[in-house]
Amino acid sequence: MNLDPSALLAAARDLLERADPTTAGIWPRATALLTRQALEAALDDLWSLRAPGVEHCSAHAQLLCLPYFLTGDDRLAEDVAYAWDGLSHAVHHHPYELPPTSVELMHWLSIVEQLVKSVKSARVPGHGTMQEV
Predict the structure, then answer these.
(1) Residue 119 burial (CB < 10 Å; 0-12/13-18/19+)?
(2) Is domain 5-121 in CATH 1.10.3470, yes or no?
(3) Is the separation of the CB atoms in 128 and 49 below 8 Å?
(4) From the CB of residue 81, how many other CB atoms can be counted at a distance below 10 Å?
(5) Do residues 111 and 81 make contact, with C-beta atoms less than 8 angstroms apart?
(6) pLDDT tens per residue across all 133 residues of the chain
(7) Domain regions of the chain by residue span
(8) Nearest Cα to 108, choosing from 74, 131, 85?
């Protein structure tokens, strides 16, 4: 199943910004999970267009490859690796740890939004391929 990174980010942002008593206590980790899914879906889109097969590698290996495929944007590649690490830590609940703060979540969301925008803008309309990013 191919998930839409933009839809996942919209759901994450909605969960983060909308106070709802039914999500009390679970919204931080749920937001982190949706954001990480969006990040991974964006990477899947990137790999399917630029380097088919890389999506089958571990997340660590994909993140190591990212600077070579986001040509000219090493900072974004570093930020994406940072966000993935923070989000991964946040979704693995430990009873003695606090969930991520809304500030942390907003920062990770903005990084993933930049990645999604970069992948979308790199598509060549009508060709199904990508320009050099």
Answers:
(1) buried
(2) no
(3) yes
(4) 18
(5) no
(6) 578 999 999 999 999 998 788 887 889 999 999 999 999 999 999 999 889 999 999 999 999 999 998 877 889 999 999 999 999 999 987 888 888 999 999 999 999 999 999 998 876 454 444 444 4
(7) 5-121
(8) 85
Cα separation values, 47 from 19, 65, 66, 105, 118, Å: 36, 10, 9, 25, 13
Select from 10, 16, 15, 11 the least CA-distant residue to 104. Answer: 16
Q: Which residues contact 36 (CB under 8 A, 6 or more apart)?
A: 84, 87, 88, 91
DSSP state of 126: T
